[in-house]
Amino acid sequence: MSGLDALPTTELPQEVSCLLLPLADGQLLVPVDTLSEIIALQSPVSAFDAPEWYMGELHWRELRLPLLAFEVMRGKPMPALRSHCRIAVLNSGNPDGDLPFFALVLQGTPRLVRVTPEELAGREGECAMGELMHVALSGEVAVIPDLGTLEEACLRYRKGR
Questions:
Q1: Second label for 3, Cα 20 to 30 Å away, from 103, 110, 117, 161?
Q2: In the prediction, which pLDDT does 15 show?
Q3: How far apart are CA 65 and CA 57, in angstroms?
Q4: The CheW-like domain covers which part of the protein (predicted)?
């Protein structure tokens, strides 16, 4: 018997509830439990000597959250902030870490989608900062963000100031 045969077998879920988060230059695909809250657009407190993608900090539920422009992390220009913009508060995936949440500017309201293995396909393309994978979901293109990298980038900036 090999070591793999001794591992317990678990079934992969047949469907995962996810959200498509609209950006100025595309959309992000995240599991529903990654999103903590959608809030109205608000001006962040300015951050001193911050990278362009670090827009500042928000006060949310007695926490200071970094507000990020994902498009700028990918090398695109800062998107225009209009009345339809929202802010997504996301779990970093590290609840016991120094930064359990951060926020992203969205260009609209997220959309709920059900993802099945048959509908999801990887796409070719080099990943930019903060991107984990490029995917197609039933013909729609999206990016799965690398939450760990986003958390690390925010923490590096905060520790360096």
A1: 117
A2: 85
A3: 5
A4: 15-156
58-94 confidence digits (pLDDT tens)? 999 999 999 999 999 989 998 888 888 999 999 987 7
| pTM confidence score | 0.84
Structure token digits, residue 7 = 């591992």
Which are the contacts of 160, defined by CB distance < 8 A and separation ≥ 6? none
3-state helix, strand, coil in the chain (%, to 5): 15, 40, 45
List all residues 6 or more positions away from 75 whose beta carbon is below 8 Å from its beta carbon.
128, 129
Domains of the chain by residue range: 17-160
Gap between the Cα atoms of 133 and 76, Å rounded: 18
120-122, strands of its sheet edge to edge: 111-115, 16-23, 26-31, 140-145, 131-137, 120-122
- What are the pLDDT digits (tens) for 100-152? 899 999 999 999 999 988 888 888 888 888 999 999 988 889 999 999 999 99
- Report helix, strand or coil for 123: coil
3-state secondary structure of 2: coil
